[in-house]
Specification:
By secondary structure, this protein is mostly helical. The protein has helices at about 1-15, 15-25, 25-35, 35-45, 55-65, 75-85, 95-110, 115-130, 130-135, 150-155, 160-164. The protein is elongated, with a radius of gyration of 18 Å.
């Protein structure tokens, strides 16, 4: 929903540079939804035959809507997380790598939610000031003001907090 809203501003901008930036910022998110369509969208954005902006944006939008029409599979998320992990492989200790892979296994088997692993990677992004991943919408899907909600009921259970 937020990606599509942001895309409308790109259309209105009539700027190839803005479209390229949009695709770059959303690359991992699009990879999670549909890797094949993400690649096709990249080729459209590259615009090798210098088609006019409106034609490019129209074709891109069709694939964007198509790619976001179905929720990503958990295996696609794993692919994206492993891709992001690759940015840090040389910077992490063996223990950190093992921890990440153990957490990924927990996600794969349904023991932990995806945001646990995303937050782990985000901590590496901050620690290493990794510019490409810092810009990725995949790690910051929602505007910060929408993240100001109470998670007590989600993870501890209602009865735990009612006793407090």
């Amino acid at each position: 929903m937020y990606v599509l809203r942001y895309f409308r501003t790109i259309k209105d901008s009539e700027s190839y540079k803005s479209l390229v930036d949009f695709h770059s910022r959303n690359k991992l998110l699009l990879m999670a939804y549909n890797q094949n369509l993400m690649r096709k969208m990249g080729k459209i954005v590259a615009n090798p035959i210098k088609v006019n902006f409106y034609s490019v944006v129209e074709e891109y939008e069709k694939l964007l809507i198509q790619s976001l029409s179905q929720p990503p599979e958990y295996t696609s998320h794993i692919n994206v997380l492993m891709h992001a992990f690759g940015y840090f492989k040389k910077m992490l200790s063996n223990q950190e790598k093992a921890f990440f892979l153990d957490e990924l296994k927990k996600y794969r088997t349904g023991w932990i939610p995806i945001f646990v692993i995303k937050e782990l990677i985000k901590s590496w992004i901050v620690r290493n000031d990794e510019p490409y991943l810092k810009r990725q919408s995949y790690f910051n899907l929602y505007p910060p003001e929408l993240m100001n909600f109470d998670m007590k009921d989600t993870w501890r259970g209602r009865s735990y907090w009612e006793k407090k």
